[in-house]
Amino acid sequence: MSCALTAIENFIIMSEAWTPNGFASSILGMNLYDWQRDVLEALMPVGSKVTLRAANESGKTGIVATAFVIWHLALFPGSQVVCTSGVWRQVVEQLWRHLRKYGNQLNWKVTQDTVEAPHGAKAIGFSTTDGGKFEGFHADDHYKVPLAILVDEAKSVEKEIFDAIERCRPTRLLVQSSPGGAGGGFYDTCQDPRFRHFKATAFDCPHLGAARAKEVEQREGSTETMLYKSMIMGEWMVDPNQTFICTQKKDWTLNSIHGCCSRRGRKRECTCYKVW
To answer: Going from the N-terminus, what domains does the chain have, and what CATH number goes with each?
Structure first.
């Protein structure tokens, strides 16, 4: 058994195209930033647990998450990748839009919430507040038929879901988001010493950089607002004196602890809020 595992590990190490980084670059044709390369490299080992706290529009979903999911499906026949977020819109309109693009290029079967490779590896996507939906997801063999779990825009995911994911014992786990309030499941996970933690600011992303930072600064009137620190610097929202109002739904206010909009006590995600 150990010889077989060594052969698999040696194959992965020796074939750069089949590392997450090499696959993203060589097979998918992605141009990776250094920090994206670092995050994907950290997801290579069996048992890897990784968090990514990054600026808005930095390429978390379109590059990092997409490369991770497609690489895992391509490399491990019969494996599963479970993708979740706090809101269905993030799964369908964001993540699955990118997975569909590359899945179609590879002639894989892609539906609204699944991606299936010819050798039986399959990704499924859903949003939930029910930890029971994660029951039944386990790796048959962490080396041959592993389980990967992706939590996208994790600031809107309930702590119960993080607890359920822990019980699944995934082979590889990526939890990523732009930061919300300094509390909740994503914040707690980013303090967990069992994980490797990464942060990317707008200045780490050439397509954003100083121009995007200046745009947000001018709109906010300062670089000290929580919104600037979250969107540009990837920092937690920690000032309880700043309140956010959704510009589309005036009766939704941003909960500074959980980093999501709430209306009459029901949590919602909002990407259009501003400091009020």
So the answer is: 2-204 (3.40.50.300), 209-275 (no CATH)
